[in-house]
Amino acid sequence: MKKKKIGFRPLALCYACLFYLFLYLPIAVVVAFSFNTSQLNVTFQGFTFEWYGRMFENVQLMQSFFNTLIVAAVSTLLSVILGTLCAVGMYRFKFRGRETVSNLLYIPIVIPEIVLGIAVLAFFTMVKIQMSMATLIISHVTFSMPFVVITVRSRLAGFDPSVEEAARDLGANDWRIFRRVTLPMILPGVLSGAMLALTMSLDDVVVSFFTTGPDSMTLPIKILGMVRKGVSPDVNALSTLMILGTVLIMLAATFFEMRMEKKEEA
Amino acid sequence: MKKKSNKIPFLSTVSPAIIWLILFLVLPLLYIVGISFMKKGLYGGVIQTFDLTAYKTMFQSKYMKILLDSLWLSLKTTGLCLLFGYPFAYIISNTKKKWKPFCVLLIMLPFWINSLIRTYGWNSILREQGILNTLLMQLGIINQPLQMLYTDGAVLLGMVYALIPFTVLPLYSSIEKLDHSLLEAASDLGASKVHVFRKVILPLTMPGIFAASVQTFIPSLGYFFITDMMGGATTMNIGNVIKNQFLTARNWPLGAALAIALIAVTIVIMKLYTRVGSIEDMV
User: Per the annotation, which location comes first and is thus the protein's main one (chain B) (predicted)?
Assistant: First the structure.
């Protein structure tokens, strides 16, 4: 069995490398052009760090960058709180309409994003609420919260209820049980839900496009407006810094996770 | 004890999420259904009278063609994503245990860099004076720059690029769950590699394939920004039409009716899907 695999390995390795190349090629291009002397993002003329200084002068660009971060942070926090509470409640209490709640939570997962985007836009227009950062955050929470519920619920599925009972018998109240017993046990689920929510918020274009106000544009929406006219290299510079930040955070997270796993094993 | 009925903690846990979803999901969706039966306002918005014009317009051949073209594009996208994604998912789920988290991380990483920025990278590669054309001309393979950007091929490439991580992840987790003793048993019993794949691996990973298809197909229906950035002026996806009706043409009822068509397609797909798999496999 093992001998047969020899012919297969180099080919597999090649394929995997080509696949990753495909995934990372456009990212590499964005990075490369951030060091380009040419004003236009067309041909590579020479190497410069100029755009890394210039981008700070581009007030609108910096604003959209901060908007992206604020929206991602706030919507993730809200999704995690709402989603975790909901998952714990659904696990602990039997109630009529549990099925319905489950199905309700599936809607944002399966619905095409554009439908959610226009629905929120139309609805807020009807109730005369202007699109702003608040509507942007609201729409992001709507599509990411169900993912938190699902990751937390799948963690709760393997949860031994007798531990909670023991805590109660020892005199702990609901809140104390939640903080000292339930929360530590579901924490990995909560964290992976948070990661999903953050990822989706940062990656979202479609929903944001409809629910953003003129002053709360996120970076992708800003770039979308610039593409046909040509994007200036300071956008590449900012994107490169974001990529760098992302890589560092992901590496730190993986490192942290590996250490936690080791601890759990020990 | 576990399933006791206790109103206050119950209300404080489940109801915030429910109220949120009713307010910001259910009501807006119902309103979209409502709008589709209304008359369009002169300057955008709607006039609240019952009217079927939106649906009559939608069933004109022009919009039906766009809808069918979009479905076809999404189908091609899904097919290509499965074709290229499956072998890749298979390979990374068979790497050494040590390397797996790293391999998966490398698929997740691009998600953190907004898909629009990544698509813009392709834009730089494919455009008339872009990297690929420059390279081909310098190598003497072509004399004239090729028209690569703003074509249907570019749109398909952009779609596959944006969606293939969504295909790979569910495939990976289902291939990962394969019981390897079954494969060994099959080959010990004399099955060839092709046979093992067709009779054992493929059927066992079918739930993953279904989940991956849904995960790819449904989002692809609304990705208007890919057609915006990679397609020509005439390339229209259903997503672009809906977007235009809401933002430029200001025919909200028509946009809403088209959105209902998308919802209908989604419901049909989910009905088919839930016969063979669960939604939780998709996360």
Answer: membrane
